[in-house]
Structures are given as structure tokens and as C-alpha cells.
Design goal:
mainly alpha; 0% strand; 82 residues; 71% helix; COX assembly mitochondrial protein
Amino acid sequence: MHPPLTLHKHPMCAEIIELFQQCHLDHPIGKFFGECTDLKIKLDRCFRQEKALKRKENFEQSKKLKERLHAFRKESAETSTE
């Protein structure tokens, strides 16, 4: 099963999504018998790559936020002891 195939949510996979949707339109019966399987596999791989990229970006942002929070706490501790 794949997530909803909206192009604005998955810009990295837009071309494959269009091909996959067109395959389903071109082969309304064949899609149930593996006609679009190759595109589905490519789409799944693309979604995995996109998710990994987003996960990495979120991790980097969380590291920066954690560093800022640590610096703020350290600064607050120093000013409260004075």
C-alpha cells in the first residue's frame, strides 16, 4: 500500500507518480495482474529515499535545537547563580 499520491506532498517522486497513475488509467484490468508492478516498485523505492532524506533533515534540525536549548540552559544557570 502506498500513501496518497499527491504531487505536492512528494515532489521528489512526481514523475514516477504520474507514470504510475497513467499506467493505472491505461490498464484498468491489467493493473490487478501485475501490469504496473515495476512502476510500483520504483515508487516504493522513491518514497523510501524521500523519507530517509526527510528523516536526516529532521535529525539535523533537532540536533541544532538541542544545542541551542543546552546553551540557553547553561546561560540561565550562570545568570541565576549570580
